[in-house]
Amino acid sequence: MNTSWPLSCPVCTAPLDAISVEAGHGGGSQEIPGPLREPCADGAAAARSLTSFRGLACAEGHRFDAARQGYVNLLSGRGTRFIADSAPMIMARERVQEAGIFAPLSAHLRGPVLDRLPAPLAVDPDQSPLILDCGAGTGHYLHQLLDAAPTARGIAVDLSTPGLKRAARHRRTLALTWDLWQPLPLRDHSADLLLDVFAPRNVNEYARVLRPGGLAAVVTPRPGHLTELREAGLLGMRSEKLNQLLDQIAPALGSPESIDRITSDVTVNPELAADLVFMGPAGHHRRREELCEEAQRRGVSQVTVDLDVSLWRR
């Protein structure tokens, strides 16, 4: 089974290989290159025998060590002008996800979206399909896709260290700290499915890294999404997103293969309503406690989830 990772060094563009440590018979250890985690033939995730992941390195000597929690920071020495989501923001997102607010979206990604992958890529274990989650956060949607496709592997890309700590927990996920506006550290035509949920979109890079026949699934909010929170003054008014998305992606990937609407009404308490606001950009300049008090004062008890899932085929 092919379990190498199609990564490019962000310094020199040479191939990046995973570095592991293998225990020696005399109690010592030896660093060896190899796959990070190897999917078993029966779909169970298992680490390589007597090895542990240490990081990534290229033949030119550029090395990126893995954090104790398993993610790798590829931005070392480069930096970014963008502000990553904080630990409290990530915790709010995790509570929203665990509450099932976006469960219909998860079900759609695991079902109709995954079913649209070309059959040889979806069922042939030798192909080891690669799912790339851009702006992965906690890896919530990526993990669900990997559980539904047990021969696949995933790469989670995000700026947020607290999010990547959670994304790295899945045995078939490689979590990378990276700025989506910079060239992605992947080789050309390497991803079978690219996922973007409410994240920035570097569309030229998306087209470059997708395999021929591969899919890009982009999730955007419709005007009615979380309208109750907007009417309560907890969120700003939303502009039209779908037309902006179509105009943005058309030069790189043409017209979408499909656009599906996901909608549901969800009961929330003030804490969960506050989390829905705090997990997004508002979390950088609002206090969750104030949001919770305002949601309770305004009597927010239900929210509308209203999303577009747009698919492009490379």
Automatic annotation (TrEMBL):
Its EC number is 2.1.1.187. It is an enzyme of class 2 (transferase). Pfam families: Methyltransf_25, Zn_ribbon_RlmA. Signal peptide: none annotated. The keyword Methyltransferase applies. It comes from the Bacteria. GO terms for molecular function: 23S rRNA (guanine(745)-N(1))-methyltransferase activity. CDD domains: AdoMet_MTases. The keyword Transferase applies. Keywords: Methyltransferase, Transferase. Residues 131-214 form the Methyltransferase domain. Residues 55-75 form the 23S rRNA (guanine(745)-N(1))-methyltransferase N-terminal domain. This is 23S rRNA (Guanine745-N1)-methyltransferase. The lineage of its organism: Bacteria, Bacillati, Actinomycetota, Actinomycetes, Micrococcales.
